[in-house]
Specification:
Helix content is about 65%, strand content about 0%. The protein is mainly α and about 300 residues long. Strands 1-2 form a two-stranded antiparallel ribbon. This is ABC transporter permease.
Length: about 300
């Protein structure tokens, strides 16, 4: 007599029990940090010495708004100058000509080796060294006191200093591109400049963008140094106000809040650019801070459910 062995019924993905991994310390540490932040926020709100009424009064003051405009203008102009000159210096540092390579290296060595505040003061006092600027051209005589205004000194000091750092960032991005790309471009008949512009730099952008975003945010805050030159940016506008009303701490809080707001906006822009240039070059696109937070607080990863998997 033959016996028939029946196979057990196949289990679907929904029938398989899932044991969720617990992360108690993740929740405990998060709760402790939130509690500390809550205590700090409560202390700041209830402390009358913060003078939140003064902060609210001057937060949208006209002079503060004008200072923000000057800050943003300096940030954009100095970064554009730094990026443009940094690309030129990076190409020079990769040149086969030792004189060109050495000149670019000397530039980077000098501007990275001296504090940016010292450079700002040197540009502001350029007339003490060269009262008459001729650029070596006969018939050209420019008064340095009129040419190098505080705003011009700020742009020169911040922009030329930034170029030294941007040159290293761009050089690292260029070196990250495989040499075979340049060889293939040369085989297609492209010269060195065309290869750099059309082939190398577009691929190097995914390496250049993240540190450039950090440099832009740093430049935004670094513009506060030009307050020593009496340029009416955000910090200097704040100093002018508290010199009149003697509310030093509230006015510094106003400036800090605006710096935080502007930095947040620039950070969101940097994240968007990173995600855009990461398409097609990596499987893992950089996530936003909100996505990272939600992922960290999940009990288990979505793919652990087994749905959509094929044997």
């Amino acid at each position: 007599m033959r016996t028939t062995v029946t196979a057990p019924p196949a289990l679907s993905d929904e029938d398989i029990p899932i044991a969720h991994k617990r992360h108690p310390w993740r929740w405990i540490s998060g709760t402790v940090i939130l509690a500390i932040l809550g205590m700090l926020a409560y202390s700041a709100i209830t402390n009358p010495r913060f003078r939140w009424d003064v902060i609210g009064l001057y937060f949208r003051d006209t002079s503060i708004a004008q200072g923000i405009q000057i800050t943003l203008l300096l940030t954009v102009v100095c970064m554009l100058l730094g990026i443009a000159l940094g690309i030129v210096l990076a190409v020079m540092r990769l040149s086969a000509n030792p004189v060109v390579r050495g000149a670019a290296g000397l530039y980077v060595f000098f501007f990275r080796g001296t504090p940016v505040l010292v450079q700002l003061l040197l540009w502001y006092n350029l007339a003490a060294l060269y009262p008459d600027i001729t650029f070596g051209i006969p018939g050209v005589h420019l008064d340095a006191n009129q040419l190098v205004t505080p705003m011009m000194a700020a742009i020169l000091g911040l922009g030329l200093n930034e170029a030294a750092y941007m040159s290293e960032i761009v050089r690292a991005g260029i070196l990250s591109v495989d040499q075979g790309q340049s060889e293939a471009a040369g085989a297609l008949g492209l010269n060195r400049l065309q290869t750099m512009v059309k082939v190398v730099l577009p691929q190097a952008m995914r390496v250049i963008i993240p540190p450039t975003g950090n440099e832009t945010i740093g430049m935004l805050k670094q513009t506060s140094l030009v307050s020593v030159l009496a340029v009416s940016e955000l910090l200097y506008s704040t100093q002018v106000i508290y010199a009149k009303n003697f509310q030093v701490i509230p006015m510094l809080i106003v400036a800090s809040l605006w710096y935080i707001i502007l930095t947040t906006v620039f950070t969101l822009g940097q994240t968007w650019l990173e995600q855009r240039f990461s398409r097609g070059s990596t499987r893992h696109v950089p996530q936003s801070w909100s996505e990272r937070l939600r992922r960290a607080m999940r009990i288990h990863a979505p793919e652990a459910t087994g749905k959509g998997n094929t044997a």
